[in-house]
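Entry 14. Ran structure prediction on the chain below.
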Amino acid sequence: MSLQPQHSILVVDDDHSMRILLIEYLSGHGYKADGAATAQEALSVFAAKRYDLVLLDLGLPDGDGTDLARRWREQAQVPIMYITGRNDEADLVMGLELGADDYIVKPFSLREVLARMRAVMRRAGAASAAPLTRGKLPNAYRFAGWTLNLNTRRLSSADQSAVPLTNSEFNLLVTFLSAPGRIITREKLLESTRAFDDIYDRAIDVQILRLRRKIEIDPKKPALLRTERGAGYIFDTDIEHLWT
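Output, structure tokens:
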């Protein structure tokens, strides 16, 4: 039984057999699934339709899947799951750093793909609804020259330039902004961001690193998002609550 029968999924994989297998399996579970075999085809298909999730092979004949992910992150907050044959911790961390919402290694079971897809879309849906349902939250936060609008999910710099955030990064930043000056443990951050179903401790450090690269003047010497060794992390700056 599918979570949302009419969700649209884009499967990008140059392996014809794998692509068709995924499309047919997802279609059999109530999803609307389209396919693309190349980066160029994927760009064209993605531009013509709204998708709720993309299954993206990292190795494409005319480009790297991570380049596609970067472009799509600038256009929309579509959840992206990388599909790859690379199977070591370094590649998993790389996938996290490049903005994946999840990461699955070939060979995999179709049931696992479906379960992880549903989990990613649940998290994305909850993140989108959160600003509308948490009545005690302001509409936006302002800190250190940055403004995070909870309604539009837009992070803007002092000159109004937009900085795209993944769903996990957005959830992580909201968690910190909701508790400034307080040490937040890894366990609490894992619960708040839920980047992976089988997430491990180091993954939250990678999420923190990605966020620092976007908001810190010098990510190697963070002044806003500081590590409290052996305890967790603390967001150490003045925060203004905005009601727009």
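The two ends are 40 Å apart (CA to CA). Will compare against last week's run tomorrow.
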